[in-house]
Specification:
heterodimer; A: alpha/beta; Rossmann fold; 7-stranded mixed sheet; 4-stranded parallel sheet; 16 strands; B: Rossmann fold; 2 domains; 5-stranded parallel sheet; 32% helix; globular; binds pyridoxal-5'-phosphate
């Protein structure tokens, strides 16, 4: 066993040829998405106005494995297989007997896990003859990933960027420009949904839920344009499985298998990517004891404090109703620096697995998260995104538990992206200006008790 | 801004040190109890930090201004009012009249609520006023949170002190009138005296670009009160006691109720149940009601949640309500300038039961976690 190896690498030819679809291993099918007007389960035709058929098929597919098109694999070669690191220096710093591994997705050109699905989505849209894709972005990671991917396949790209991030991270928008995309702060006056929000609150910070409404509306009202979502949906989780599949191979190279798998959770895609292959092993009894933990912000605690029910994916109520953990589609999360985690809902599959107890969730305050980010940068060297720091916080906490119990557990986490465009957030941290936002759960429930129930 | 009126109420704060809840009309009693004038120290603390900011001060003679300018090493001022050896509120008013005639753009004063009212009588909303806190009660929001903060605000108005502001945020703030006689008998009787203009306090951290404007503060209050009004409506079985302040006032307003500014008022299902409650009233309500929640806002910067001007909610009342039923509210701006909160209810065990952190409602469906100071002395 070569335990002290730092980078565990795969050969380019070892890029997986198939994605893994955990739907095949769920004990019973997911509750179907419902049509926002009729309340009936959606059929492929309902979605074809804004998604290409190949993606709709994946969204509903019961197949365990789905072939990755060679044209997509070819683009993935630019940075895949991504390295798996053994965090020797972090372990030493924590004085933990645990073995910590991280899958570093920050090596992609846009700097995160997002292009794993952006490339696939752009490809399928190109194949169907679409000319433009509209999307939203929270932190800017997804927008820049899709800008990068659409440019490769010669598509136009319009990105609605949550206003608070647009102001916090101007260089994300510059990246999109370099890759030829148009980036618009959301809410904007370009769409009906955007105008409605601005009318009610001209100073709004915006939210992912609002930006999704705008992008969906844009796509639905232009025949040459499709919509693309960077997280939440099943096909996105499928595309992201490549990280977990590679990680399992890489850990096998050093004769290891994780006791604990961790990811941060916004819409759930990077977490799904790293964990679903292992969750599949758990569901099928191959590794029944593997523990899987999603880390989310205390200010937007969807999995730890939300309700498991049908809700819209966006603020305007344009998307199908999804059965998921939700804080309510009209919830505008406070303006935390981990903009990519400001989402009221969550992937229906992740939600289901949390509901079933296959996965558990934890939540953290901003200052704890930045502490972890600093520790990581000062031990492993990489300055990570604030989103990613949530996963690092959870990994550190688990490693500290090992120090207390003396257990030498093996911990794997998804290091979803670098933080090179988040330096103003680090500045705020060092200036002592981070606010530890919370979600006043009981009072919110009280305030909702007289309102009509959502979904059902 | 360059020409600034500067005025000190030399006797401000004297009553407080000797257990009188104010000094208005009680100067002789305060002296008899051994009080010494102390406001000059607080004024000096501000002035010595802005001595080289290029302001031209217009002031009064002796302890009402000139003495402090000399101690602070501030040259080139004009004395436009001759103060008598022992000054009264009439002197404050007369001096302000003189300042206005001398064309000052703003008045910096040192005193308490009474001094603020005297200034306001003359100045009204004509020019901004800013208070260096030195009185017994400072419920008016024309005061900086501390002498140091007053200096910081003044610096932000001066091009010579480095920070040359593009625009000076001026807001309208309340000047309140507390009935001192009633106050001394444990009763808070107040009324809104008027709205003065005051430079907005940009918080303790001068380096931030964040400029909080009046609009932001009002928006934040609106968001907090909109949320809590929804909570009140969603819980018709719960009685709510709202503490002093404008934010709690706006919760009542959202419910269509008018609340006293400094009193504790009770409401249920958006119906007013009682105003200006004292301890006995509250205990009576607690006997009758199944569940009671208390809504209180923090005092900015110093961080007091309970124990400053809230004697009515005694430890007995708080224990009956229960720590979990206390809802603390504050705007983000106030929280930013308040690093830690503290409880000083008079019962240390009760203070301790709030834990190391509390959650403060700071917006619509949003809270912030704030640390609680331990053994504060
Ligand atoms: C670096 C990084 N990690 C994580 C996320 C969270 O998204 P998801 O939950 O879909 O992985 C984002 C989203 O923007 C991100 O940029």
């Amino acid at each position: 066993m070569d335990l002290m190896k730092t980078k565990i690498l795969l050969d380019e030819e070892e890029i997986p040829r198939r994605w893994y679809n955990i739907m095949a291993d769920l004990p019973s099918p997911l509750d179907p998405p419902l049509h926002p007007q009729t309340g009936k389960p959606v059929v492929p035709d309902d979605l074809s106005a804004i998604f290409p058929m190949d993606l709709i098929r994946q969204e509903m597919s019961p197949e365990r494995f789905i072939d990755i098109p060679e044209d997509v694999r070819d683009v993935l070669r630019l940075w895949r297989p991504s390295p798996l690191y053994r965090a020797n220096r972090l372990e030493k710093f924590l004085k933990t007997p645990a073995r910590i591994y991280y899958k570093y997705e920050g090596v992609s050109p846009p700097g995160s896990h997002k292009p794993n699905t952006a490339v696939a989505q752009a490809y399928y849209n190109m194949k169907e003859g679409k000319e433009r894709i509209a999307t939203e972005t929270g932190a800017g990671q997804w927008g820049s990933a899709l800008a990068f991917a659409t440019q490769i396949f010669d598509l136009e790209c319009t990105v609605y960027m949550v206003r608070s991030s647009y102001a916090q991270k101007p260089y994300r928008k510059s990246m999109m420009q370099v890759w030829g995309a148009e980036c618009i702060p959301s809410p904007s006056t370009k769409t009906r949904s955007g105008r409605a929000v601005l009318e009610k609150d001209p100073e709004t910070t915006g939210s992912l839920g609002i930006a999704i409404s705008e992008a969906v509306e844009d796509a639905a009202s232009h025949p040459n344009t499709n919509y693309s979502l960077g997280s939440v949906l099943n096909h996105v989780c499928i595309h992201q499985s490549i990280t977990g599949l590679e990680s399992r191979e890489q850990m096998a190279q050093v004769d290891d298998y994780p006791d604990i798998v961790i990811g941060c959770v916004g819409g759930g895609s990077n977490f799904a990517g790293i964990s679903f292959p292992f969750a599949g092993d758990k569901l099928t009894g191959k590794h029944p004891d593997v523990e899987i933990i999603g880390a989310e912000p205390a200010s937007c605690p969807t999995l730890t404090r939300g309700l498991y029910t049908y809700d819209f994916g966006d603020v305007a109520g344009l998307t199908p109703l999804l059965k998921m953990f939700t804080l309510g589609h009209d919830f505008v999360p406070p303006s935390i620096h981990a903009g990519g985690l400001r989402y009221h809902g969550d992937s229906p599959i992740v939600s289901r697995l949390v509901h079933d107890g296959v996965i558990r969730a934890v939540s953290y305050h901003q200052s704890e998260v930045f502490d972890a980010g600093q520790i990581f940068a000062r031990t492993e060297g990489i300055i990570i995104a604030p989103e990613t720091s949530h996963a690092v916080r959870a990994a550190i906490d688990e490693a500290i538990k090992c120090r207390q119990t003396g257990e030498a557990k093996s911990i794997l986490f998804n290091c979803s992206g670098h933080g090179h465009f988040d330096m103003s957030a680090y500045d705020a941290f060092y200036a002592g200006q981070l606010v530890d936002y919370e979600y006043p759960e009981q009072l919110i429930r009280d305030s909702l008790s007289r309102l009509p129930k959502i979904g059902q | 801004m360059k020409r600034i009126g500067f005025l000190v109420n030399p006797v401000a704060g004297m009553g407080g040190t000797v257990g009188l809840k104010g000094t208005d009309g009680l100067y002789d009693e305060a002296v008899k109890r051994g009080a010494n004038p102390g406001s000059w120290r607080r004024a000096l603390a501000t002035m010595s930090r802005i001595h080289d900011c290029g302001f031209h001060f217009v002031t009064c003679s002796g302890p009402m201004g000139e003495d402090i300018l000399v101690k602070a090493g501030i040259p080139g001022y004009d004395v436009v009012y001759r103060a008598p050896a022992r000054s009264f509120s009439s002197d404050t008013r007369a001096a302000c009249q003189g300042f206005l005639e001398a064309g000052v753009e703003m008045i910096l004063f040192c005193g308490g609520d009474g001094t603020a009212r005297d200034l306001f009588d003359v100045v009204l909303g004509k020019i901004p006023i800013l208070g260096i806190p030195a009185g017994v009660k400072m419920y008016s929001s024309v005061f900086a949170v501390s002498p140091g903060a007053a200096a910081d605000v003044m610096k932000s108005l001066s091009p010579a002190c480095g920070v040359s502001p593009k625009r000076i945020p001026i807001r309208e703030t309340e000047v309140v009138d507390v009935d001192e006689e009633a106050y001394r008998h444990g009763e808070l009787k107040t009324r809104l005296y008027g709205f003065a203009k005051s430079p907005y306090l940009p918080g303790l951290v001068q380096s931030t670009k964040q400029v909080f404007e009046e609009r932001d503060e009002e928006r934040a209050k609106e968001a907090i009160s909109r949320f809590l009004a929804e909570v009140v409506r969603g819980t018709p079985e719960i009685l709510y006691i709202l503490g002093p302040g404008t934010t709690t006032g706006s919760i009542a307003q959202q419910c269509g109720i008018k609340k006293t500014l400094l009193g504790f008022d009770a409401m249920k299902e958006c119906r007013l149940v009682g105003t200006d409650l004292n301890e006995k009233d509250m205990l009576g309500l607690l006997d009758r009601e199944e569940k009671v929640r208390l809504v209180v806002s923090i005092i900015g910067a110093q961080g007091s949640v309970l124990g400053r001007g809230t004697q009515q909610v005694s430890p007995a009342v708080l224990k009956r309500i229960g720590v979990d039923n206390i809802i603390i509210i504050a705007t983000p701006h106030k929280l930013q300038e308040t690093p830690v909160l503290f409880f000083d209810t008079g019962d240390p065990d009760l203070d301790g039961s709030f834990g190391d952190f509390v959650s403060v409602i700071s917006g619509y469906r949003v809270a912030q976690r704030k640390p609680v100071a331990r053994n504060r002395t």
